[in-house]
């Protein structure tokens, strides 16, 4: 069974992204929102939200009229490109996680599958978080 997005899924994601964005701005990137997340779901939203914010920040910093040296701009672009596959995999892992939880609730799967899917998602979150931290450091260097 393939996971189908429901209209409320997107609104929840956008609301979480807005909350993460406000959190990041208030904290001035001093503390990672991921460090404050208490659940795996919160960590997914925090990593993704931080990535989106940093991606937009880099896009603004490397615009045509940027005064940053070209090698700094290229480093920022490469950092975004390096993080994108891990972010995509994390989001796919999150979709699998949600599907597995729904199947478990319906009695269609076993706890072992939930454990495997959860471990896989946690691994993707860790990888993506490390790359987003690197992206954040690269973006800070351009300030």
Order of helices and strands: HHHHH
Instruction: Please state the average pLDDT score.
Output: 85
Q: Largest sheet, if any?
A: none
Total helical segments: 5
* Helical fraction: over 70%
Please indicate the percent range of residues in DSSP E strands (runs of 2 or more).
under 5%
What is the terminal-to-terminal distance?
47 Å
Radius of gyration: 17 Å
Which structural category fits the helices and strands?
A: mainly alpha
Unreliable spans are: 25-29
Please give the domain count: 1
How many β strands by DSSP? Answer: 0
Shape: elongated
Q: Would you mind describing this structure in some detail?
A:
The chain has one domain (7-141). It has helices spanning 7-27, 33-36, 40-61, 70-105, 111-141. The chain has 5 helices and no strands. α1 (7-27) packs across α3 (40-61), α3 packs antiparallel against α4 and α3 packs parallel to α5. The chain is an all-alpha fold and 143 residues long.
Secondary structure elements and their pairing?
Elements: H1 7-27, H2 33-36, H3 40-61, H4 70-105, H5 111-141
């Amino acid at each position: 069974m393939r996971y189908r997005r429901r209209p409320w899924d997107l609104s929840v994601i956008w609301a979480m992204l807005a909350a993460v964005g406000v959190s990041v701005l208030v904290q001035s990137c001093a503390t990672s929102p991921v460090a404050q997340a208490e659940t795996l779901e919160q960590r997914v939203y925090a990593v993704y939200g931080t990535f989106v914010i940093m991606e937009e920040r880099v896009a603004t910093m490397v615009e045509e009229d940027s005064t940053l040296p070209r090698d700094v701009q290229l480093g920022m672009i490469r950092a975004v490109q390096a993080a994108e596959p891990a972010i995509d995999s994390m989001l796919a892992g999150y979709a699998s996680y949600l599907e597995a939880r729904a199947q478990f609730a319906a009695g269609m799967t076993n706890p072992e599958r939930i454990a495997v899917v959860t471990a896989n998602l946690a691994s993707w979150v860790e990888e993506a978080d490390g790359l987003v931290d690197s992206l954040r450091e690269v973006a800070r260097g351009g300030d």
